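INFO  loader      accepted 1 record
INFO  loader      residues=188
INFO  predictor   begin
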Amino acid sequence: MVAYHDDEWGVPIHDDRRWYEKLTLDGAQAGLSWMTILRKREGYRAAFRGFDAAAVARFGERDVARLMKNDGIVRNRLKIKSAIGNARALLAVAAEHGSFDAWIWQFIGGRTIANTRRGRADMPARTPLSDALSKELRRRGFSFVGSTIVYAFMQASGLVNDHTLGCFRRMQVAALSRTSARRAPTTG
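INFO  predictor   done
INFO  writer      dumping tokens
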């Protein structure tokens, strides 16, 4: 968990493959610990074609049956079907907006939201913004994207910077956020 926090958590994502990975893993976490999912990440990477949404979008019932036997992932039929459906939904958003990345960053105005949390007790499980993004994702056909899952997704992917005021990563992630905002793709 320390390596995940220090190297990944909160770092802005600007790659549709990484977005699909986050959607898949965060959806799989529902009801489980994040450590369980991190331990299975390589299994997910292999099972879901390196998180290639176009490849996964072509999965059918045989693939679902095959994945249900794969102990490298969470063997939950609803979560497996969600990962496949989310690949299709991500591709639809990307076709409409040029990329999923362009769409999701546009949803928050193209810049990381920097919060000022003092500690874990200040960390909400959800926010009005995660409620709105959850609703929009569901409207677009995504599943396992309830507001609590979406807020964790927003934190992990750099849409919000929730490193606490005393955390050494707070300013480092803020600098990465500023740099990535300048390079982020825009839609017309």
